[in-house]
Write a structure and sequence with these properties.
This protein has about 130 residues and is of the alpha+beta class. It contains two helices and eight strands, in the order H-E-E-E-E-H-E-E-E-E. It has an eight-stranded antiparallel beta sheet with strand order 1-2-3-4-5-6-7-8, covered by helices on one side. A hairpin with a 3-residue loop joins strand 6 and strand 7.
Length: about 130
């Protein structure tokens, strides 16, 4: 956590006080650097996405594939031709939204943002420090 900006640290502390951090993965989005913070939370595994200015972009809990609505399950099966990794439900988006991680090949992670009605809003790769 000491390798993140003070604004990111403040957001983590205010949004998830006392929760154990599993890991923090830096990445990039359209407007700059973001941090994916994986937590052990009372409700289960949790993922915060925070930009470099401390803005909370998403807060999601891990759920089972079978816990997602049928329309989301169907969309998840067709969103990406990769191996399903983890499913999360966003806690801060205005309508029920699900984030589904996939593994392409042996190491490339991507995620799909799928609305409760099955609409695939986006499929995005996780950018990291590797220039490949």
């Amino acid at each position: 956590m000491s390798h993140t900006p003070a604004a990111v640290q403040a957001t983590i502390t205010s949004v998830a006080p006392g929760q154990r951090i599993q890991k923090i993965n830096p990445g990039h989005r359209f407007a700059g650097r973001v941090y994916h913070i994986y937590l052990d939370a009372p409700e289960g595994s949790r993922l915060l996405t925070v930009d470099e200015h401390g803005t909370l972009l998403d807060d999601a809990v891990v759920i089972l594939f079978s816990e997602m609505p049928p329309a989301v399950q169907a969309a998840a099966r067709t969103a990406v031709s990769g191996q399903l990794q983890v499913c999360r439900q966003s806690l801060i988006r205005p309508q029920p939204t699900y984030l589904v991680d996939y593994l392409l090949g042996d190491e490339e992670l991507v995620f799909a943002i799928i609305e409760a009605n099955g609409f695939i809003r986006a499929v995005i790769g996780y950018a990291d420090e590797d220039p490949d």
